[in-house]
Amino acid sequence: MTLDFHALGFGAGQRALYAADPWSSRGRLFREAASPTRSDFQRDRDRIVHTTAFRRLKHKTQVFIAADGDHYRTRLTHTIEVAQIARALARALRLDEDLAEGVALVHDFGHTPFGHTGEDALQEVLAPYGGFDHNAQSLRIVTKLERRYAEFDGLNLTWESLEGLVKHNGPLLTSDGEGVRGPVPQPILDYCALHDLELANFASLEAQVAAIADDIAYNTHDIDDGLRSGYLSFDMLEEVPFLAGLMAEVRGHYPNLEPSRFTNEIMRRQITAMVEDVIGYAQAALAAVRPTCVDDVRRAGRVMATFSETMAETDRAIKSMLFKRIYRHPDVMRVRANAAAILTDLFHAYMDDPQLMRGHHWADRIAEMPEAARARHVGDYLAGMTDNYAVDTHRRLFDHTPELR
Protein backbone atom coordinates (compact mmCIF):
# COMPACT_ATOMS: atom_id res chain seq x y z
CA MET A 1 0.00 0.00 0.00
CA THR A 2 1.29 3.48 -0.89
CA LEU A 3 0.51 6.12 1.70
CA ASP A 4 -0.37 9.71 0.80
CA PHE A 5 1.66 11.90 3.14
CA HIS A 6 -0.49 14.93 2.43
CA ALA A 7 -3.65 13.02 3.26
CA LEU A 8 -2.02 11.97 6.54
CA GLY A 9 -1.44 15.59 7.43
CA PHE A 10 2.32 15.51 6.87
CA GLY A 11 2.31 17.88 3.91
CA ALA A 12 3.57 21.43 3.63
CA GLY A 13 0.15 23.07 3.61
CA GLN A 14 0.61 24.73 6.99
CA ARG A 15 4.29 25.57 6.60
CA ALA A 16 5.50 28.89 5.37
CA LEU A 17 7.61 29.17 2.22
CA TYR A 18 10.66 30.03 4.33
CA ALA A 19 10.30 26.91 6.52
CA ALA A 20 12.52 23.86 6.10
CA ASP A 21 10.78 21.24 3.96
CA PRO A 22 11.32 17.62 5.05
CA TRP A 23 10.38 16.42 1.57
CA SER A 24 13.22 18.46 0.07
CA SER A 25 15.92 17.63 2.59
CA ARG A 26 19.53 17.75 1.46
CA GLY A 27 19.70 14.19 2.69
CA ARG A 28 21.90 12.08 4.94
CA LEU A 29 25.58 11.23 4.73
CA PHE A 30 24.60 7.59 4.19
CA ARG A 31 21.60 7.16 1.89
CA GLU A 32 18.54 5.47 3.33
CA ALA A 33 15.15 4.59 1.95
CA ALA A 34 12.33 6.97 2.91
CA SER A 35 9.89 5.99 5.63
CA PRO A 36 6.26 5.44 4.56
CA THR A 37 4.93 6.88 7.85
CA ARG A 38 7.32 9.62 8.99
CA SER A 39 9.06 12.61 7.45
CA ASP A 40 12.86 12.71 7.56
CA PHE A 41 12.76 15.29 10.35
CA GLN A 42 10.37 13.15 12.36
CA ARG A 43 12.74 10.22 11.98
CA ASP A 44 15.62 12.40 13.17
CA ARG A 45 13.68 13.45 16.26
CA ASP A 46 12.76 9.87 17.05
CA ARG A 47 16.35 8.67 16.64
CA ILE A 48 17.53 11.39 19.01
CA VAL A 49 15.03 10.40 21.70
CA HIS A 50 16.07 6.73 21.58
CA THR A 51 19.79 7.35 22.11
CA THR A 52 21.90 6.50 25.11
CA ALA A 53 23.04 10.14 25.13
CA PHE A 54 19.45 11.33 25.59
CA ARG A 55 18.84 8.98 28.52
CA ARG A 56 22.06 10.09 30.21
CA LEU A 57 20.80 13.68 30.35
CA LYS A 58 18.54 12.55 33.21
CA HIS A 59 21.55 12.34 35.52
CA LYS A 60 23.60 15.29 34.28
CA THR A 61 23.68 18.57 36.16
CA GLN A 62 21.97 21.69 34.89
CA VAL A 63 22.93 24.01 37.77
CA PHE A 64 22.25 22.11 40.99
CA ILE A 65 23.63 18.59 41.34
CA ALA A 66 21.36 15.66 42.10
CA ALA A 67 22.36 15.59 45.78
CA ASP A 68 20.72 19.00 46.23
CA GLY A 69 17.22 17.58 45.72
CA ASP A 70 14.88 15.82 43.32
CA HIS A 71 13.00 18.91 42.15
CA TYR A 72 15.87 20.80 40.50
CA ARG A 73 16.27 20.73 36.74
CA THR A 74 18.60 18.25 35.13
CA ARG A 75 19.90 18.41 31.56
CA LEU A 76 16.99 16.20 30.56
CA THR A 77 14.21 18.29 32.08
CA HIS A 78 15.89 21.42 30.71
CA THR A 79 16.01 19.84 27.26
CA ILE A 80 12.31 18.92 27.40
CA GLU A 81 11.42 22.50 28.37
CA VAL A 82 13.53 23.87 25.51
CA ALA A 83 11.83 21.51 23.06
CA GLN A 84 8.37 22.60 24.22
CA ILE A 85 9.20 26.29 23.76
CA ALA A 86 10.90 25.67 20.41
CA ARG A 87 7.88 23.80 19.15
CA ALA A 88 5.54 26.60 20.26
CA LEU A 89 7.66 29.19 18.45
CA ALA A 90 7.84 27.03 15.33
CA ARG A 91 4.08 26.63 15.30
CA ALA A 92 3.50 30.36 15.63
CA LEU A 93 5.92 31.11 12.77
CA ARG A 94 4.63 28.24 10.57
CA LEU A 95 7.95 26.39 10.60
CA ASP A 96 8.62 22.67 10.61
CA GLU A 97 7.91 21.79 14.25
CA ASP A 98 9.65 18.41 14.06
CA LEU A 99 12.96 19.90 12.94
CA ALA A 100 12.78 22.62 15.61
CA GLU A 101 12.00 20.02 18.26
CA GLY A 102 14.78 17.71 17.08
CA VAL A 103 17.41 20.45 17.23
CA ALA A 104 16.21 21.38 20.72
CA LEU A 105 16.33 17.78 21.92
CA VAL A 106 19.88 17.20 20.66
CA HIS A 107 21.44 20.57 21.51
CA ASP A 108 22.88 19.50 24.89
CA PHE A 109 24.08 15.99 24.01
CA GLY A 110 27.71 17.03 24.29
CA HIS A 111 27.47 18.44 27.80
CA THR A 112 29.62 16.76 30.41
CA PRO A 113 28.76 15.67 33.92
CA PHE A 114 28.59 18.56 36.42
CA GLY A 115 27.34 21.11 33.92
CA HIS A 116 29.66 23.84 32.65
CA THR A 117 32.13 22.93 35.38
CA GLY A 118 32.78 19.62 33.66
CA GLU A 119 33.18 21.34 30.31
CA ASP A 120 35.73 23.75 31.78
CA ALA A 121 37.64 20.87 33.37
CA LEU A 122 37.78 18.89 30.12
CA GLN A 123 38.78 21.98 28.18
CA GLU A 124 41.74 22.44 30.53
CA VAL A 125 43.02 18.86 30.37
CA LEU A 126 42.36 18.55 26.64
CA ALA A 127 43.84 21.94 25.73
CA PRO A 128 47.08 20.37 24.43
CA TYR A 129 45.02 18.06 22.22
CA GLY A 130 42.57 20.48 20.60
CA GLY A 131 40.44 21.39 23.62
CA PHE A 132 36.83 20.53 24.34
CA ASP A 133 33.66 22.14 23.00
CA HIS A 134 30.26 20.79 23.98
CA ASN A 135 28.72 21.67 20.60
CA ALA A 136 31.45 19.80 18.74
CA GLN A 137 31.00 16.93 21.19
CA SER A 138 27.28 16.81 20.37
CA LEU A 139 28.21 16.43 16.71
CA ARG A 140 30.68 13.64 17.54
CA ILE A 141 27.98 11.80 19.45
CA VAL A 142 25.41 11.86 16.65
CA THR A 143 27.89 11.19 13.83
CA LYS A 144 30.35 8.82 15.47
CA LEU A 145 29.96 7.78 19.10
CA GLU A 146 26.42 6.40 19.22
CA ARG A 147 26.69 2.77 18.14
CA ARG A 148 23.16 1.66 17.27
CA TYR A 149 22.98 0.86 13.58
CA ALA A 150 24.48 -1.94 11.53
CA GLU A 151 25.45 0.20 8.53
CA PHE A 152 26.94 3.34 10.09
CA ASP A 153 28.20 4.94 13.28
CA GLY A 154 26.13 7.70 14.85
CA LEU A 155 22.52 8.44 13.90
CA ASN A 156 22.90 9.46 10.24
CA LEU A 157 20.75 12.54 10.80
CA THR A 158 19.69 14.78 7.93
CA TRP A 159 21.83 17.68 6.79
CA GLU A 160 19.25 20.10 8.23
CA SER A 161 19.32 18.58 11.71
CA LEU A 162 23.11 18.59 11.77
CA GLU A 163 23.21 22.15 10.46
CA GLY A 164 20.85 23.16 13.24
CA LEU A 165 22.94 21.40 15.85
CA VAL A 166 26.21 22.98 14.73
CA LYS A 167 24.97 26.49 13.80
CA HIS A 168 21.96 27.13 16.06
CA ASN A 169 23.93 29.95 17.71
CA GLY A 170 24.89 31.47 14.35
CA PRO A 171 27.57 31.01 11.66
CA LEU A 172 30.94 29.64 12.74
CA LEU A 173 32.91 31.22 9.90
CA THR A 174 33.01 34.66 8.31
CA SER A 175 32.76 35.00 4.55
CA ASP A 176 36.59 35.16 4.56
CA GLY A 177 36.84 31.82 6.33
CA GLU A 178 37.83 33.18 9.74
CA GLY A 179 36.33 31.75 12.91
CA VAL A 180 33.52 33.95 14.22
CA ARG A 181 34.12 32.98 17.87
CA GLY A 182 37.67 31.74 17.54
CA PRO A 183 38.94 28.64 15.74
CA VAL A 184 36.26 26.18 14.67
CA PRO A 185 36.62 22.93 16.66
CA GLN A 186 38.36 20.25 14.64
CA PRO A 187 35.55 17.66 14.92
CA ILE A 188 33.22 20.10 13.14
CA LEU A 189 35.76 20.79 10.40
CA ASP A 190 36.41 17.06 9.98
CA TYR A 191 32.72 16.33 9.51
CA CYS A 192 32.23 19.26 7.13
CA ALA A 193 34.96 17.84 4.91
CA LEU A 194 32.60 14.91 4.33
CA HIS A 195 29.23 16.67 4.50
CA ASP A 196 29.55 20.44 4.13
CA LEU A 197 27.30 22.22 6.66
CA GLU A 198 28.06 25.67 5.17
CA LEU A 199 29.55 27.15 8.33
CA ALA A 200 29.54 30.73 7.00
CA ASN A 201 25.76 30.80 6.57
CA PHE A 202 23.06 31.19 9.19
CA ALA A 203 20.96 28.18 10.11
CA SER A 204 17.31 27.65 9.37
CA LEU A 205 14.63 29.41 11.38
CA GLU A 206 13.89 26.06 13.02
CA ALA A 207 17.40 26.05 14.49
CA GLN A 208 17.12 29.71 15.42
CA VAL A 209 13.95 29.15 17.46
CA ALA A 210 15.62 26.20 19.21
CA ALA A 211 18.51 28.47 20.19
CA ILE A 212 16.36 31.26 21.60
CA ALA A 213 14.13 28.69 23.32
CA ASP A 214 17.26 27.55 25.19
CA ASP A 215 17.77 31.09 26.53
CA ILE A 216 14.12 31.44 27.51
CA ALA A 217 14.08 28.08 29.29
CA TYR A 218 17.21 28.44 31.36
CA ASN A 219 16.63 32.09 32.25
CA THR A 220 13.28 31.06 33.66
CA HIS A 221 14.06 27.77 35.33
CA ASP A 222 17.33 28.95 36.85
CA ILE A 223 15.33 31.65 38.63
CA ASP A 224 12.82 29.00 39.75
CA ASP A 225 15.58 26.68 40.99
CA GLY A 226 17.44 29.61 42.55
CA LEU A 227 14.39 30.57 44.58
CA ARG A 228 13.90 26.94 45.61
CA SER A 229 17.54 26.68 46.75
CA GLY A 230 17.50 29.91 48.73
CA TYR A 231 20.29 31.51 46.70
CA LEU A 232 17.69 33.88 45.25
CA SER A 233 14.95 35.80 47.02
CA PHE A 234 12.02 37.78 45.69
CA ASP A 235 13.79 40.95 46.86
CA MET A 236 16.76 40.06 44.65
CA LEU A 237 14.49 39.73 41.64
CA GLU A 238 13.53 43.37 42.14
CA GLU A 239 17.00 44.22 40.73
CA VAL A 240 15.63 43.47 37.25
CA PRO A 241 12.82 45.89 36.29
CA PHE A 242 11.15 43.32 34.05
CA LEU A 243 10.90 40.81 36.90
CA ALA A 244 9.82 43.51 39.33
CA GLY A 245 6.98 44.35 36.97
CA LEU A 246 5.89 40.73 36.77
CA MET A 247 5.88 40.40 40.55
CA ALA A 248 3.83 43.58 40.93
CA GLU A 249 1.33 42.22 38.42
CA VAL A 250 0.99 38.91 40.27
CA ARG A 251 0.65 40.64 43.65
CA GLY A 252 -2.03 42.88 42.20
CA HIS A 253 -4.10 39.89 41.10
CA TYR A 254 -3.28 37.57 44.02
CA PRO A 255 -2.18 39.60 47.08
CA ASN A 256 -1.91 36.65 49.50
CA LEU A 257 -0.55 33.94 47.22
CA GLU A 258 1.70 31.30 48.79
CA PRO A 259 5.38 31.53 47.69
CA SER A 260 5.43 28.41 45.49
CA ARG A 261 2.38 29.52 43.51
CA PHE A 262 3.69 33.09 43.41
CA THR A 263 6.93 31.81 41.85
CA ASN A 264 5.04 29.78 39.27
CA GLU A 265 2.87 32.74 38.27
CA ILE A 266 6.02 34.84 37.73
CA MET A 267 7.64 32.11 35.64
CA ARG A 268 4.53 31.62 33.49
CA ARG A 269 4.43 35.31 32.70
CA GLN A 270 8.14 35.44 32.00
CA ILE A 271 7.99 32.63 29.45
CA THR A 272 4.89 34.11 27.80
CA ALA A 273 6.42 37.58 27.52
CA MET A 274 9.68 36.27 26.08
CA VAL A 275 7.99 33.93 23.60
CA GLU A 276 5.66 36.68 22.38
CA ASP A 277 8.62 39.06 22.05
CA VAL A 278 10.49 36.58 19.84
CA ILE A 279 7.42 36.00 17.69
CA GLY A 280 6.91 39.73 17.22
CA TYR A 281 10.55 40.34 16.37
CA ALA A 282 10.65 37.40 13.96
CA GLN A 283 7.49 38.53 12.18
CA ALA A 284 8.96 42.00 11.68
CA ALA A 285 12.26 40.54 10.45
CA LEU A 286 10.46 38.23 8.03
CA ALA A 287 8.45 41.17 6.70
CA ALA A 288 11.67 43.09 6.11
CA VAL A 289 13.68 40.27 4.52
CA ARG A 290 10.74 38.60 2.72
CA PRO A 291 12.38 35.18 2.33
CA THR A 292 10.70 32.87 -0.16
CA CYS A 293 12.61 29.72 0.78
CA VAL A 294 14.76 28.38 3.59
CA ASP A 295 17.96 29.25 1.73
CA ASP A 296 16.90 32.92 1.79
CA VAL A 297 16.88 32.61 5.58
CA ARG A 298 20.38 31.12 5.57
CA ARG A 299 21.69 33.94 3.37
CA ALA A 300 19.86 36.76 5.16
CA GLY A 301 22.98 37.83 7.06
CA ARG A 302 21.09 38.14 10.35
CA VAL A 303 19.26 36.17 13.02
CA MET A 304 15.54 36.56 12.51
CA ALA A 305 14.20 34.61 15.50
CA THR A 306 15.59 36.32 18.55
CA PHE A 307 14.77 38.93 21.20
CA SER A 308 13.98 42.53 20.47
CA GLU A 309 16.61 44.96 21.78
CA THR A 310 14.43 45.74 24.80
CA MET A 311 14.04 42.08 25.71
CA ALA A 312 17.70 41.41 24.92
CA GLU A 313 18.60 44.01 27.56
CA THR A 314 16.30 42.22 30.00
CA ASP A 315 17.97 38.93 29.07
CA ARG A 316 21.39 40.43 29.86
CA ALA A 317 20.13 41.78 33.19
CA ILE A 318 18.72 38.39 34.19
CA LYS A 319 21.94 36.60 33.25
CA SER A 320 23.97 39.15 35.22
CA MET A 321 21.82 38.57 38.28
CA LEU A 322 22.07 34.79 37.93
CA PHE A 323 25.85 34.93 37.62
CA LYS A 324 26.20 37.14 40.66
CA ARG A 325 23.67 35.42 42.89
CA ILE A 326 23.93 31.75 41.84
CA TYR A 327 26.64 30.74 39.39
CA ARG A 328 29.37 32.58 41.34
CA HIS A 329 27.97 31.98 44.82
CA PRO A 330 30.78 30.72 47.16
CA ASP A 331 28.91 27.48 47.90
CA VAL A 332 28.41 26.79 44.20
CA MET A 333 32.03 27.66 43.42
CA ARG A 334 33.24 25.24 46.12
CA VAL A 335 31.16 22.42 44.63
CA ARG A 336 32.37 23.36 41.15
CA ALA A 337 36.01 23.10 42.24
CA ASN A 338 35.40 19.66 43.73
CA ALA A 339 33.56 18.47 40.62
CA ALA A 340 36.41 19.69 38.41
CA ALA A 341 38.89 17.79 40.58
CA ILE A 342 36.92 14.57 40.09
CA LEU A 343 37.05 14.79 36.28
CA THR A 344 40.69 15.91 36.26
CA ASP A 345 41.67 12.96 38.44
CA LEU A 346 39.78 10.54 36.22
CA PHE A 347 41.35 11.93 33.05
CA HIS A 348 44.88 11.43 34.32
CA ALA A 349 44.04 7.97 35.71
CA TYR A 350 42.68 6.80 32.36
CA MET A 351 45.56 8.31 30.43
CA ASP A 352 47.98 6.41 32.69
CA ASP A 353 46.01 3.15 32.57
CA PRO A 354 43.37 2.98 29.81
CA GLN A 355 42.25 -0.46 30.98
CA LEU A 356 40.54 1.28 33.91
CA MET A 357 37.85 2.38 31.47
CA ARG A 358 35.07 -0.12 31.78
CA GLY A 359 33.06 -0.83 28.66
CA HIS A 360 33.26 -3.30 25.82
CA HIS A 361 34.97 -0.94 23.36
CA TRP A 362 36.36 1.98 25.34
CA ALA A 363 39.62 0.28 26.33
CA ASP A 364 40.07 -1.66 23.09
CA ARG A 365 43.31 -0.83 21.25
CA ILE A 366 43.64 2.48 23.08
CA ALA A 367 47.19 1.72 24.18
CA GLU A 368 48.19 1.60 20.51
CA MET A 369 46.77 5.06 19.77
CA PRO A 370 48.91 8.20 19.45
CA GLU A 371 48.72 10.34 22.57
CA ALA A 372 46.34 12.94 21.05
CA ALA A 373 43.91 10.26 19.85
CA ARG A 374 44.09 8.55 23.24
CA ALA A 375 43.31 11.83 25.01
CA ARG A 376 40.30 12.43 22.77
CA HIS A 377 39.08 8.90 23.43
CA VAL A 378 39.36 9.46 27.18
CA GLY A 379 37.60 12.80 26.78
CA ASP A 380 34.73 11.10 24.95
CA TYR A 381 34.42 8.58 27.76
CA LEU A 382 34.40 11.24 30.48
CA ALA A 383 31.99 13.54 28.63
CA GLY A 384 29.51 10.69 28.35
CA MET A 385 29.46 10.03 32.08
CA THR A 386 26.56 11.03 34.30
CA ASP A 387 27.23 12.87 37.55
CA ASN A 388 26.56 9.75 39.60
CA TYR A 389 28.76 7.51 37.49
CA ALA A 390 31.66 9.96 37.65
CA VAL A 391 31.43 10.18 41.45
CA ASP A 392 31.06 6.42 41.90
CA THR A 393 33.97 5.73 39.57
CA HIS A 394 36.17 8.20 41.41
CA ARG A 395 35.34 6.52 44.71
CA ARG A 396 36.31 3.17 43.22
CA LEU A 397 39.66 4.40 41.93
CA PHE A 398 40.74 6.88 44.61
CA ASP A 399 41.02 6.86 48.40
CA HIS A 400 39.25 10.20 48.79
CA THR A 401 36.50 11.74 46.68
CA PRO A 402 35.54 15.42 47.14
CA GLU A 403 32.10 16.15 48.51
CA LEU A 404 29.56 17.71 46.13
CA ARG A 405 27.17 19.16 48.68
Topology of this structure?
Blueprint lengths: L39 H10 L2 H5 L18 H18 L4 H10 L8 H12 L7 H12 L13 H9 L18 H9 L10 H25 L4 H4 L3 H13 L5 H31 L4 H5 L10 H19 L2 H23 L18 H13 L3 H11 L8
Which features characterize this protein?
disordered N terminus, single chain, hydrolase, 17 helices, Hypothetical protein af1432, globular, mainly alpha, 405 residues, 2 domains
Q: Helical residue percent?
A: 55-70%
- Mean pLDDT over the residues: 91
Shape by Cα distribution: globular
Strand and helix order:
HHHHHHHHHHHHHHHHH
Q: Care to count the β-strands?
A: 0
Structural class: mainly alpha
Family: Belongs to the dGTPase family. Type 2 subfamily.
InterPro entries: dGTPase, dGTPase-like, dNTPase_2, HD/PDEase_dom, HD_domain, PHydrolase_assoc_dom
Keywords: Hydrolase
Pfam families: HD, HD_assoc
